[in-house]
Amino acid sequence: MQGAVTRPILQRGMVKAISFNAANRSEAMAVLKYYLNNTTAQELYTRIGTALSDPMLLSTDVENFLSALEGIGIVTSSAHAAVNDNVVRHCLRCHQPYMERDNRARSCNILHTLQMPARPEVVGQAPKVRAICCGADLSIEVATKTLHFTGRHTTSVQNVAYNTTNVKTCAEMGCAGNAAVITKGA
Ligand SMILES: [Zn+2]
Ligand SMILES: [Zn+2]
Ligand SMILES: [Zn+2]
C-alpha cells in the first residue's frame, strides 16, 4: 500500500507478542479514532466488503485483519462455529430451511397480510389498505414496500413474535420444525 506506514507483517496469533512503544501506540490510537470519527457505519461496512471481495487481496492481509478483529474481541468463536456448522436448520419464523453460515441480517422476510379490497378512498387522502397482521392502516405504497418483519432466521421461539395471521408456529403450519431436520442432519 503506497503511502502507508510500513509495519511488520503480523502472523496470526503473534499480535500480542509484538509491543509497540507508547508513542507508536498513541499515534495509532489517534489515527484509528480520527478514521472512525470521519467514517459512517455504512461507509466502513461497504469498504470492508469491497476490500474482502478483491481477488488480489493477500492472504496475509486477510489473516492479519481477522486476527486484529479477534484480538480486540469483535469477531468471536461463534463466527468460526457458524462457518463450520453443516446442520440444515428450520427457521421457526418463516419455516424455511437454512444453514447458519448463510444467515444474515435480512435472510428472514415476512410480508404483511393485507386485507383486500382496499378500504374505500377517503376524499383528499391516499387510499389505504389494512395490514391485518399489524392492525394498521397503511398507504398502498408503504404496505407494498415494507415488510412485516425482516431479520435473521432463528431456531429460538423467544425471538419470534407469533400472531394469528402471518407468523405462525410450526404446529399451526403443520411442519416438523427442527425435530426432523436435526435428526436428519445427525
Ligand atoms: Zn404486518
Ligand atoms: Zn426465517
Ligand atoms: Zn416450521
Keywords:
186 residues, alpha+beta, three-stranded antiparallel beta sheet, 7 helices, 7 strands, flat, binds zinc ion
Structural commentary:
The protein has 186 residues and is α+β, with helices and mostly antiparallel strands. It has a domain at 15-75. It has 7 helices and 7 strands, in the order ααααββββββαβαα. The strands form 3 sheets. The chain has a 3-stranded antiparallel β-sheet with strand order 4-5-6. It has a two-stranded antiparallel ribbon with strand order 1-2. β1 and β2 form a beta hairpin. 6% of the residues are buried. The structure holds zinc ion (3 copies). The site of one zinc ion has 5 residues, from loops.
Instruction: Tell me, briefly, the overall form.
Output: flat
Order of SSEs: HHHHEEEEEEHEHH
Q: Got a strand count?
A: 7
* Share of residues in strands: 5-15%
Any low-confidence stretches, pLDDT <50, length ≥5?
A: none
Major beta sheet, specifics? 3 strands, antiparallel
Hetero ligands: zinc ion
Measured between the Cα atoms of the first and last residue, the distance is 47 Å
Topology:
Elements: H1 22-37, H2 41-53, H3 59-71, H4 77-83, E1 89-90, E2 97-98, E3 108-110, E4 114-115, E5 128-131, E6 136-139, H5 140-145, E7 149-151, H6 170-173, H7 177-185
Antiparallel strand pairs: 1-2, 3-7, 4-5, 5-6
The structure holds zinc ion (3 copies).
